[in-house]
Amino acid sequence: MKIVCAPDSFKESMSAAEAAAALAEGVRRVAPDAECAEIPMADGGEGFTESLADALGLSAVEAPVLDAYGRPALARFALAEGLAVMECAQAIGLGMVPPERRRIREASTFGVGQMILAALDGGAREFLFGIGGSATNDGGAGMLRALGVRFLDAEGRELDGSPASLARLDSIDASGLDPRAAAATFKIACDVDNPLLGPRGSSAVYGPQKGASPEDVAFLDGTLERLARTAGHLDSFAAAPGAGAAGGLGYAFSAFLGGELQSGADLVVEAVGLAEAVKGADFVFTGEGAMDRQTLMGKTLSGVARAAAGVPIVAFAGSLGEGVEELYSHGFVGLVPIVAGVTTLEEALAGGREALADAAERTVRLLLAGAARSADLL
């Protein structure tokens, strides 16, 4: 029997790697000779770097950077053999800034550029980037400035790339862009389709959660419009789906670095070779902390379902929400809650790994009993 264990993380309980190990443990309790592949999964959000680092055997690296407000920070990413996996939230994460200290007009992506430079110095030439959870809305200008692009006012003075400074933008000089960055390949995990500007743009949709007032939203949208117009991108890159991701980082990656925006779940599936791994599998075991009708809307399990088309999928979850039965029409043959009895949330989170292993064990026992019964009937 071959089972591929490809779960996402169970938030606040276990990482994707720990979840994969728990599923495999449960399988081997019943079927010690089973071929059991552990492939941690993620989308473009939390756990993106960790899951890919575990799956691809990359080494963890730390680099000194500046956070969204220019304070020293240490950003972690993964690196090996020319490949870097990183998340912008490591440098400019919204969670790094308390709500009362958020000043969105001053926030910069400069630290993301510093991360890229550190990876380039380490030999990276291909980047897999998660861009969720940013505290910024500068259209990626800070990142580009760190990489050598100059943003100038009408008198030729260099701007720092923050939204406040971009209000004075007159010209862009990209001649100093680090040639290593220009030649590198960037694949961006992007699970939103917002353009850069307008009522569905980054400022209007995501600015308020980053501390933007209604006045800030109008100001920010104006500075991004000025940036895109100065670069000549108003009707091209700025209007593309995903340009508004992470305060315009999606725009900067695609317009200035040739980055490819794609579904985070699909990017991870491709990077870890899941479609190849499931060939010949009898079952795929996957899961995440909570499942409902939104589970297939660009999240990790949607990518697993596409990669494992034709292979029976069993999904495990801490909780099953409204509409979860829709998964049965997408290749899922079982939806298994891992909490076996009455418990508190704190107890469920603390005991998640053992509960997941137990649930996998029970499931395999049922599958084997069903297979034996079918053989008897034949």
UniProtKB/TrEMBL annotation:
InterPro entries: Glyc_kinase_flavodox-like_fold (IPR018193), Glycerate_kinase (IPR004381), Glycerate_kinase_RE-like (IPR018197), Glycerate_kinase_sf (IPR036129). NCBIfam families: glycerate kinase. Keywords: Kinase, Transferase. This is Glycerate kinase. Belongs to the glycerate kinase type-1 family. It comes from the Bacteria. GO terms for molecular function: glycerate kinase activity. PANTHER family: GLYCERATE KINASE. GO terms for biological process: organic acid phosphorylation.
